[in-house]
Amino acid sequence: MELTITQPDDWHLHLRDGSLLEAVLPHSAKQFGRAIVMPNLKPPITTTAAAVTYRESILKAIPKDSNFTPLMTLYLTDMTTPDEIKLAKKSELVYGVKLYPAGATTNSQDGVTDLFGNCLPVLEKMAELNLPLLVHGEVTNSNVDIFDREKVFIETILEPLVQRLPQLKIVMEHITTADAVKFVESCKEGYVAATVTPQHLLLNRNALFQGGLQPHNYCLPVLKREIHRQAIVSAVTSGSKRFFLGTDSAPHDKRKKECACGCAGIYNSPVALSLYAKVFEEAGALDKLEAFTSFNGPDFYGLPRNKLKIKLRKAPWKVPDCLSFPFGDIVPMFAGETLEWEASPC
What we know:
Blueprint (H helix, E strand, L loop, with lengths): L1 E5 L3 E4 L4 H12 L4 E4 L10 H14 L7 E7 L6 H10 L2 E6 L15 H4 L1 H10 L3 E3 L13 H16 L5 E3 L5 H9 L5 E5 L1 H5 L23 H11 L6 E3 L8 H4 L14 H11 L6 H13 L7 E10 L4 E3 L2 E3 L7 E8 L1
Parallel strand pairs: 2-3, 3-4, 4-5, 5-6, 6-7, 7-8, 8-9
Antiparallel strand pairs: 1-10, 10-13, 11-12
Helix pairs in contact: 3-5
EC number: 3.5.2.3
Keywords: Hydrolase, Metal-binding, Pyrimidine biosynthesis, Zinc
Organism: Flemingia macrophylla
């Protein structure tokens, strides 16, 4: 079996910087035409000038035979100004502003502490200029159970935000719950959408503990119950335009995953398209795969769809146990397992 589809984009990607950027970028550039690049570096990308500099370092690392285009983002802080939003929009290089609640995930310590108290003028300017807000949708209150943090964020932050600024475009990133599916589907189409990762389509929270603690299945937002996984699969395979591909591929050196306080993040770029194809095939919805991977994202962002095509071929291949680089090893998602679909350029 073979499918030819429009080249996909990745609407949520961590490329890191330095030697890690150079190591992982080719995996994304091989399969995706564009990617929304996350800004949570050290220090974070909080200004348009920093985003331009980061973009230049990415461009230098792109393989010469690739058409990959990085789409830059800013990291929202309590100190971000409306003038910075105007600069970002004017640059034509920044495509969104990322909301990390302070302490929610990797390198989020500089994130927002009070969205409505500190950032409302910025959000109003974003709505005016049609610059999307990209949301890590979890509260960070330690009194809220980690498995409930997405649900509580929707109730206390997102629902009031949509009511207050209905013209603000919002992407709820890497959704993990039936609550998120219900919220996105309840909003006006074209204004609120969601990215979905391979791990939240294929794994539930049992995958963290089967056969012992599994650090390479640990990500944030954390994997949830099976009922939530099923709800997300149903949503993305339904043909809805509100959901699109965002891998949240997040590379870490193996030593930083397999340690006493391991980092959150799953590196899935080398296997993402194979895994998305698996999900849609198992749901009997391969005819809807192309819209999810290649149409819904650019349509939401107001960008043209890619013109190039890729092939997805039913050809079993084994995922490497690890990927070795001079600085160390990275363990990819589903390491050592055999996958049924293989992606290649036309």
